[in-house]
Amino acid sequence: MERYRSDLEGSLRRVYGDQVDAIWPRLEALLKRSFGERPTELRRLDEARLLRPDWLQAPEMIGYVAYTDRFAGTLKGVSEHLSYLEELGIKYLHLMPLLKPRAGENDGGYAVQDYKAVREDLGSMADLRSLAGELRARGISLELDLVINHVAEEHDWAVKAKAGYGNYRDYFLMFPNREQPDLYERTLPEVFPDFAPGNFTWNAAARSWVWTTFNSYQWDLNWANPNIFLEFVDIILHLANQGVEIFRLDAIAFIWKRMWTDSQNQPEVHDLTRALRAAARIVAPAVAFKAEAIVAPGDLIAYLGQRDHHGKVSDMAYHNSLMVQLWSSLASRSTRLFEQALLAFPPKPTNTTWGMYVRCHDDIGWAISDHDAGMAGTVGWGHRAFLSDFYSGAAPGSFARGQVFQANPRTGDRRISGSAASLAGLEAAETGAEVESALRRLRLLHAVTIGYGGVPLLYMGDELALTNDYSYASAPEHALDNRWMHRPQMDWDKAEERRDPQTSAGKMYAALRSLIQARQHLPHLHASIESRVMRSPNEHTLLLRRTHPQGNMLAVYNFTNEFQALPAWVLREVVGAYPRDAISGHEWNLTNEEVALEPYGAYWLIEQAH
């Protein structure tokens, strides 16, 4: 408390002012109670994390992301497959939403009815606690989603609000008529224009218009009410005491509303995150936060901390721009926009890390700014349209097999669904050469994320190159949401092929294992160090430099299916004349005039002492 009181109280006073005096005794009692309930083995983990505060930044941190039911049926089923994760080199397991959701349609589990209960078909809170212990014994950290912007309409708070019970109406943003909602709507975007247009829903039982950013059954919380802060401190510490080590703060950008803005990325968001982090540090310093903020690069860095928040908010944030640029460069065969996008990022706090990924459970939105596109010599809206055409398979020469998600005729925005393997051409491949090209594309994309510095997050099945699952259309609860095509059931029969080098699964698995093993022995990939883009003389190649006390590292990537040449001096100036490629183990000779990069080649060149 002595260490973090200023972070906690100061941040709360910036948001709530003098209301803090009224809630402080309740907050302090909640922290003391949660600390008293913390199990001995988790206190030991707290001590270990205090001694090694950079645990989340270490090169051995490799993440795996899966839906519990689709990976192994139940939480107990996950326990039966921990050896599979260990073999792959996983140190961080993110299980997608598993807290009790509303029955029926629930936005993939993001409409939570009870934060202190597990979805019945997956198991119980006791099962979750047991799994967390098994993971911890194997050195694997457990991450869960914490939906903090909204709750299900069936959540106890919403039920009481509809009934007019106590002060629960103040837990939400409710309006008796359309006057204020219409004013807000003038500047609010639509998240799901196809099946959930607008941001407000009339609820007859509550006799009010309710703010519902995502779906009509997901009620946005009123974080201007300090009781909401207290509720979530209680939820976080309860789950932390079950063994959850990392919380993915879902839809965090949306939690503070302000008239005449898009009600995203408001300053209060970061004050509240800092206060939540301080509360967690007081009771459970082993816990880390990951911001699910899919926002513009200029807004994103604030989720890791700027100015007085520097390094004091979330410990990790998704590098969504990196993912978008991977697919953009693969389609365009040019890295000019990639370079420009990375140059636009200010340095992050050295005690934070990025979460990088080739694919995730969600659609791909083409978050490419008109400014970056212009600086790279293209037109923003035109390039975004090209990418949507390419990855939906509509563009001539496209190798991709994806589908358009949430087309917005008003803005022209078209997002894309599809698995990494299908988007990279494996599903469409008809010849052995086409299969090899698709697998080389996937290896390239994973090499960039694994070699960037941060926590690479492998989406379930990508290690086996699983393609689109079209059976989603026959499930009524999923039929209208084509994102389920890239949320397949884990194919354990195909997993048995992972040691067969003649299969696509075996080739993909071997490539990923090679990249992971190379990373785990590279101190250069500690996340406290930034990857810095170097302007490449060849527009088809990407050069990322990392400056480390043990020597420089230069990652070199070819985004085409042809050999590409680079002047040797460009590489030699960074890593010397005889660097070692950490992926292949080969020593390079850069005393020649130029070097040739293989089609979709990926290299991590390490400076050596000679």
UniProtKB/TrEMBL annotation:
SUPFAM superfamilies with a match to the protein in the record: (Trans)glycosidases (SSF51445), Glycosyl hydrolase domain (SSF51011)
CDD domains (alphabetical): AmyAc_Amylosucrase
All copies of domain Glycosyl hydrolase family 13 catalytic, residue ranges: 65-519
Domain of life: Bacteria
Gene Ontology terms describing biological process: carbohydrate metabolic process
Species annotation: Deinococcus psychrotolerans
Protein name per UniProt: Alpha-amylase
Parts of the chain that traverse the membrane: none
Gene3D superfamilies: 1.10.1740.10, Glycosidases, Golgi alpha-mannosidase II, Oligo-1,6-glucosidase, Domain 2
GO terms assigned for molecular function: amylosucrase activity
